[in-house]
Design goal:
Low-confidence stretches: none
Strand content: over 45%
Number of helices: 0
Shape: globular
Distance between the termini: 6 Å
Strand order of the largest sheet: 1-9-8-4-3-2
Structural class: mainly beta
Radius of gyration: 15 Å
Length: 118
């Protein structure tokens, strides 16, 4: 496993993200309500730069004719075709078999490190 320093935690405010490069990998680092997550900047559908898509929420299970919005700021939507992924897990919202790579992170002394090979 290799640890790569990528940013000071304070430089990515809550609700924001940053795209970084590590050894040819493009990775999005997200701050969701004070928790940091790292996703491959790659949509498995057509290869778009997923982390350049909007961060939003989604509709939650509900009764017919009822609309409940939830999970605000936990979903990233592919900028090309709108496929949606859970930033915390990398899984698509429509199938657990479709996902983008999730990377492990370590926050140490206010510094964010991405772990490759975990």
């Amino acid at each position: 496993m290799a640890h790569y320093y990528v940013a000071e935690a304070s430089s990515i405010p809550e609700g924001d993200h940053r795209i970084i490069e590590i050894e040819g990998r493009s990775i999005g680092i997200y701050n969701i309500k004070g928790e940091y997550h790292a996703l491959a900047n790659y949509c498995p559908h057509e290869g778009a730069e997923l982390c350049k898509g909007p961060v939003c929420g989604t509709t939650m299970p509900s009764k017919v004719n009822e609309y409940i919005y939830g999970r605000d700021q936990e979903i990233v939507r592919c900028p090309w075709h709108g496929w949606e992924f859970d930033i915390k897990t990398g899984k698509s919202l429509f199938s657990e078999k479709v996902r983008t790579r999730k990377y492990a992170l370590e926050i140490k002394d206010g510094q964010i490190h991405v772990i490759i090979g975990a």
